[in-house]
Design a protein that fits this description.
By secondary structure, this protein is of the alpha/beta class. It has one domain: Metallo-beta-lactamase, Chain A. The protein contains six helices and 19 strands. The protein has a seven-stranded mixed beta sheet, with no helix packed on it. Strands 10-11-12-13-16-18 form a six-stranded mixed beta sheet, with no helix packed on it. Strand 14 and strand 15 form a beta hairpin. The radius of gyration is 16 Å and the shape is globular.
Length: 224
Amino acid sequence: MKQLYEDLWICTPEANANKIEPELMMHGFLLQHLRGNILISRADNPLDHDAIADSGGIIRHYLTHWHEAGPATRQLQQRFNSALYCHARALGHVSRYAEPDATFTKAEVHCGSFHVVPTPGHTPGSTSYLYASPYGKTYLFVGDTVTLSHHRWMTIRAAESNEHDLHQTLNFYRALRPDVIMMSSTVGHPGWQEVDLRQWLALLGEAEHNPRDLCLSQASNDGG
């Protein structure tokens, strides 16, 4: 686990060893909140679990979309007695691994300052999290809605993606003013990126015009 800012750490990247994207890395983030530590996305490495324990554990674990759920989700829930949160439309998939303690369907503010914002498109239950750190930077956790692949911004489309919803989400993002973008997966790039307003608007435009269709990638990989 690596410290990025005074109150934010990134988990050990998880390599996705497949022929489609051999350099694909998946990321999770530990946020030190005044009310207790919060985990966003995923943390599958047992050494990270020990580091979380050394930092005081976690009180809550938020998933940006159901693709992040896995065996470690239940392990974290049991070890730290932490509350698991996801969008209601991700519940069925997430429950295969762990039973969420609570779901949401609309924008909410948790713990007094942690903004939960449904941002459908990549999946119906995709959710972003916005947090204005008391140390000065505003963090936006975007999941897999936008990502970096070898310094190129793009959106990721899966079987359950909805192009109309994704377009609306990107327009919503344009009204936000984050300082740091936290991504749940990247290709050949770390899981975070500092931005100013000009860079933020430019990367959203680039991502919108560069969709990556995972279904087509899979078909090509299979020879179909």
